[in-house]
C-alpha cells in the first residue's frame, strides 16, 4: 500500500489546501446608522416652490437634542416621556376627540417569533399618540389570533409596517420590538 496520492484523488486535496492558504477577508462592518434626514425642500413631500417652506423648522435643528436609539434615530417614546414634546391629541383640536383620547396600559405578548425573542406590544406608548381608531379595525382586529402578523407582511407595509419605518422607528432596530428572550432565542446581539 502506498502513502502517495496521485491523479484524480489529489485534486480535491490540492484545492482544499489552496483554499486554506488564501488570505481571509474580514466581513464588512454593518452600517447601523440611520440615513441622513433629507432637507424639507428635497424630501419629495413638501413643495419647494411654496414660500412657506422656509418657515418650517429644519428637522435636523429641531430634533438635535432628542434622545436617539443605537442607529441615531429619534427615540420618540423617550422624547415624549422626558416631556420634550407634547403632541396634539387631535389634528383639528376638536375637544370631543381630545376627550376620547385615553392611554391604555395593556401589553400583548406575541410568541410566534421562531428563534427571535418574543414581541411585547405596549399599548401605552401607542395610545399616548393615537386613538384606538387609528389601528382598530382597519389595521388590527382586536381579537386573539385574528392578525396573521409576519415580518414579511410588516416589511410590505402591513400591520406594524403601516407606521414603522415611515413615521415611527425603523424596522432595523429589531430589539425595540423583539424584547422578550425565551429558551430558543439567541443571546443579545445589540
Q: Write the element-wise H/E pattern from the N-terminal end onward.
A: HHHHEEHHE
- Class from helix and strand fractions: alpha+beta
Question: How much helix, percentage-wise, in residues?
Answer: 10-25%
Sheet with the most strands? 3 strands, antiparallel
Q: Runs with pLDDT <50, length 5+?
A: none
Backbone shape: extended
Which homologous superfamily in CATH is the superfamily of the domain at 94-185? Cytochrome C3
Strand order of the largest sheet: 1-2-3
CATH architecture of the domain at 94-185: Alpha-Beta Complex
Task: Summarize this structure briefly.
This protein is an alpha+beta fold.
Blueprint (SSEs and pairs):
Elements: H1 10-21, H2 59-62, H3 76-81, H4 95-100, E1 107-110, E2 118-122, H5 123-127, H6 151-155, E3 178-180
Antiparallel strand pairs: 1-2, 2-3
Describe this structure in words.
The chain is an alpha+beta fold and 190 residues long. The protein has a domain at 94-185: Alpha-Beta Complex (Cytochrome C3). The chain has six helices and three strands; from the N terminus they run ααααββααβ. The chain has helices spanning 10-21, 59-62, 76-81, 95-100, 123-127, 151-155, and strands at 107-110, 118-122, 178-180. A three-stranded antiparallel sheet has the order 1-2-3.
For this entry, give a set of tags:
single chain, 190 residues, 6 helices, extended
Amino acid at each position: 500500500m502506498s502513502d502517495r496520492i496521485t491523479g484524480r484523488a489529489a485534486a480535491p486535496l490540492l484545492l482544499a489546501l489552496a483554499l486554506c492558504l488564501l488570505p481571509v477577508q474580514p466581513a464588512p462592518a454593518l452600517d447601523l446608522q440611520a440615513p441622513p434626514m433629507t432637507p424639507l425642500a428635497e424630501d419629495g413631500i413638501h413643495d419647494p416652490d411654496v414660500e412657506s417652506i422656509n418657515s418650517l423648522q429644519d428637522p435636523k435643528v429641531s430634533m438635535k437634542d432628542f434622545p436617539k436609539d443605537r442607529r441615531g434615530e429619534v427615540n420618540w417614546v423617550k422624547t415624549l416621556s422626558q416631556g420634550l414634546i407634547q403632541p396634539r391629541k387631535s389634528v383639528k383640536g376638536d375637544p370631543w376627540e381630545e376627550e376620547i383620547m385615553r392611554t391604555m396600559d395593556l401589553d400583548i405578548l406575541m410568541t410566534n417569533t421562531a428563534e427571535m425573542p418574543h414581541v411585547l406590544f405596549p399599548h401605552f406608548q401607542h395610545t399616548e399618540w393615537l386613538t384606538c381608531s387609528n389601528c382598530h379595525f382597519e389595521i388590527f382586529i382586536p381579537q386573539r389570533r385574528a392578525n396573521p402578523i409576519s415580518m414579511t407582511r410588516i416589511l410590505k407595509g402591513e400591520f406594524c409596517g403601516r407606521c414603522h419605518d415611515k413615521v415611527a422607528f425603523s424596522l432595523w432596530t429589531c430589539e425595540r420590538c423583539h424584547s422578550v428572550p425565551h429558551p430558543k432565542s439567541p443571546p443579545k446581539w445589540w
